[in-house]
Each structure stands twice: as structure tokens, then as C-alpha cells.
Specification:
mainly alpha; 5 helices; 50% helix; single chain
């Protein structure tokens, strides 16, 4: 049997930094939508994912580079009318649901507990971590326009 060498496969992995921004943008889109609309089932996983990803990526140089690319992609493929993609910056992202929506997000988070491989943080801890991430993004001014 003759073995045929194949050409190197293109690296098709999704970067964690891109995943972080995709989830952050999705949460921002949901959290800035007018009206009381409950999250789709299992949307609360993105809250937990953002916190987990941030622990690995908060000092990533690539994190800074990918934000504009992710927002351009979301604008091209989603372009929700209530989102100002042209002026969206990391410091403007709203990761935490409104007080009015929090009970629904908390119920969704509770309903998906069996999906976690280990014990996830409780919802209040998750919110505290998201607040910290928002503050960090504001302080870092990642890809903010220069005056």
C-alpha cells in the first residue's frame, strides 16, 4: 500500500479572542434591544462563557486586534437596527442584562445547570464578574478611536 502525502491542512480553528468578541457582541445586541424580551433558551450560557474566556484572554494582544473584524462581521450578517455598529467600542459594550430582564436570564441560567461539566458560579457571582469585565474593557480602551 502506497501512502500519499497530503498537503498541509489550513488551520481552521476559531480563535478564543474572536469567540469572546462574538459572545460579547451578541450579549450587547440582546441587552440593548428595546422592550422586555426574554432571552432565547440557553442564551445565559454566553454570560458564563464570557467570564471563562476573560480569565484566559484579558491580557491577550490578539484580543485588541480582533474587535473591529468581529463587529464588521456582525454588522454585515446581522445589522440589527437598534445597534449602532459604527460607533460600537469595547467600552460601550453592555454585557449585563437590565434589571428588568435579570430574572429571566437568571431562570435561563438555572435551567441550564445540567449542561455544565463542573459546578458553575452562582448567578450573582457571574454578574459581579461581568461587571468587572465591563470595567476592565472601559479602562483598557481597546480599539477606541483616538481623539
Amino acid at each position: 500500500m502506497k501512502v500519499i502525502a497530503s498537503l498541509p491542512a489550513k488551520d481552521r480553528r476559531i480563535l478564543l479572542e474572536r469567540t469572546f468578541w462574538e459572545k460579547a457582541a451578541l450579549l450587547h445586541e440582546q441587552n440593548t434591544r428595546a422592550g422586555a424580551r426574554p432571552p432565547a433558551p440557553r442564551q445565559a450560557r454566553h454570560l458564563s462563557d464570557i467570564v471563562e474566556l476573560w480569565q484566559s484572554l484579558s491580557n491577550s494582544v490578539r484580543l485588541r486586534e480582533l474587535f473591529p473584524e468581529v463587529i464588521a462581521h456582525r454588522r454585515a450578517f446581522f445589522d440589527y437596527t437598534w445597534v449602532d455598529y459604527a460607533n460600537m467600542t469595547p467600552s460601550s459594550l453592555k454585557l449585563i442584562p437590565s434589571d428588568l430582564a435579570l430574572p429571566e436570564w437568571q431562570a435561563d441560567y438555572k435551567a441550564m445547570q445540567s449542561m455544565f461539566h463542573s459546578t458553575p458560579p452562582d448567578f450573582q457571582e457571574l454578574l459581579a464578574a461581568l461587571k468587572h469585565i465591563e470595567s476592565s474593557l472601559q479602562a483598557q480602551q481597546i480599539n477606541e478611536p483616538t481623539p
